[in-house]
Amino acid sequence: MRKAAHHGVIAWAILLAGFxxxxxxxxxxxxxxxxxxxxxxxxxARELQRxxxxxxxxxxxxxxxxxxxxxxxDSVTRSEFRRYVEGLELGRRYPGFQxxxxxxxxxxxxxxxxxxxVRREGFSNxxxxxxxxRDEHQIIVYIEPxxxxxxxx
Length: 153
Hints:
This protein is mainly alpha-helical. It has 4 helices and 2 strands, in the order H-H-H-E-H-E. The longest helix has 71 residues, at 2-72. It is rod-shaped, with a radius of gyration of 34 Å.
């Protein structure tokens, strides 16, 4: 009987050692997987941050270029604005832009004259919205691509 008890103790010791080793392996494996996931997440987050920063920088450059276009000339025509925006190839190079526009400050007393001018340029239905005269109006006068953004005009 002593031999059987001795075998029982050995069996329990082996079982306990196996359980301990399996638990330790599971704990180390879980820790390794969690660490790998954290490293992958950090790398993905850094890459996303870098891409967003580059996009913002690109978009900032587009807006600086647009500002420079208007600063370099006394006036920019609608066709010049269209050619400039077409040259940027927004859909291919800057997909975050839906449109570029230019808004002009118009004083309230000048509103009717301004609307007539735009209507004579071929936009017979042009009206400033919301209706009403205010001290100042910031009016979108150029928007490109026009065909996709006519409602904003």
